[in-house]
Every structure is written in structure tokens, then in C-alpha cells.
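Usage

Read records sequentially. Each one opens with the input sequence:
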Amino acid sequence: MEQRRAGIDRRSVPGTAPSITHQCELLGISRSGLYYQAKGITDEEHELMKMIDRQYLLTPFYGARKMAVELTRQTGLPVNRKRVRRLMQLMGIRALYRRPRTSKPSSGHHIYPYLLRDLKITQPNQVWAADITYIPMAKGFMYLVAIIDWYSRYVISWRLSNTMDDDFCVAALEEALSKGTPEIFNTDQGSQFTGEAFTGLLKEHDIKISMDGKGSYNDNLFIERLWRTVKYEEVYLKAYKDGGEARISLGEYFRFYNTIRPHQSLGYRTPAEVHGYIMENTVTKVVKSSVTNTVGMAGLSLSKAPFLSY
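and closes with the structure output:
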């Protein structure tokens, strides 16, 4: 929106073409929206956002109404439901549950099917997934996007941003694709993932696109678990003073998460061990079989080194 507002030539003289009204129409913004100035976030609202974030990890099925009731209980002060809804929208979160299809999706983008239902995921680089979460800081907040390998839980790339534009998501995807290529890429239906910049990049690499049902928690369960782990083991223990400190600290944590921290679901191995070990065995089997069956090596992507973004 800010980029579109910046594209308006406000020096336009009445009676000349194009007028400011016509420029607004061409750029898809209202005349009143041109002069709108967003209200800043107060210190009180920053504290509420931190509380919402913590509560959301515990009860992701809470909508604004129940969240407002819970915050009222915790603070002992009345918390307005509309205010909570506005802050949840700003944070990019919504109650997660299976919703009936009572309305059609907007015509602004193509909706892709969910391809992971009943799919057996048996190796790295079969399915990657991406999501965005809110990161609180001492003053203010940022957004974190991460791309993980579904099988090994390996964090392939990540980026921080102070806006919800799609640029940081595309940058994370470009880095991830420089290190490997999945068969399927799964996201939610957020505008950062449905835009042409993101989906076009996936299509260029012949990757199948999968998208969750709106508000469905289980469709992208593993990355939701990643957010819970990152926040309880890293974010909530720190109070990042700025984006630079957050990047350094999160970089150190993701290195720990990928290469040192054992995962119970992985047989107490690290994501790096599972990701590298499975790929190495796959290559070994192909090499052995190629002696007798002449199996081609094209398409294999070795991903044994830790993938970290800064």
C-alpha cells in the first residue's frame, strides 16, 4: 500500500491528466486512502500483542472474542474485543479451525489444492513448507518467515521483516532454492504466498504448489510446532532491542536447532543428521543400482551442509 501511495504524483494540476483521482483509480486505492495516516502502536498495545502471542501458542483456536476474555482475566482490566481483533490482524494471526466453505475465495489470486492429505512423506526435499509468525521485541515487533523441510524438520532459510510485504518471503524462497528443490511446496493462503512473485518462482522450478485450507491448524502442523519451539526456547527468553540483535540471536538459535538440538520425533537425532543422512543413503543406493541398472543421477540434490540465513 505504501508503495502505491508513493506512486501518486501529488503535484497534479486540476484539469490536467492524469488527475489525482484518476491516479488513485489506476493504482487501486481510494482517494481517502491516499491521505490516511496509520496510528502508531502504544506501549500498552505492544504489551497486549505479547500476551496475545503467548496465549495464541496455547490456544490457537481462540478468536478475538475469547482472546479478549482471556486478556481481561490476565490483566484484571477490560480489554475491548475490537481492539484485540485489530491487533491480531496486525500480527497476522487468526483462530485456527476447520471452517465451513460458506463463501468463495477472493478473485485476486488462484487457490491451489492441498496436496499433502494422505501423502506419505518418506524423504528430505519431498515437501517444503513456509509460514510467517510475529516476533515481539523490547520496543516494537517484526515478522519472521521460515522455510522448512517437512521430513527432517530442517530450517532451510529464514528472513525477518518489519512489514508484511512479500519481499522477505521471496528472498527466503530464493535462498532456499539455491540449495535444493522440493517436489511440493506447502503454505497457507496468505497474500505473501499467493502473489505472482512467490508462486511464479515455484513454477519456474517445476514445483507443485500446495495450500492449506483457510484457518486449518493441522494442514501445516510441523511449522506451527517450529514456532512454538522457537518462541519458548529463544524469543520469550530474550528481549531483542532491535532488528539487528534479533537477526543475530535467531541465527544462532537456528544453527543450534538444525545441528545440535536432538528431536524426539527424529529418534533424538538433529534435523541436519536426518536431512544429510537420508540424502547420503539415497545417493549411495542410486550409485550401487546404477552399476547394473544404469540409473541416471539427474535430479538428485545433495543438502548436507547446514542452511542458515542472516
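Summary fields computed downstream for this record:
- The chain has a mean pLDDT of 80.
- The chain has three domains: 2-34, 43-91, 127-265.
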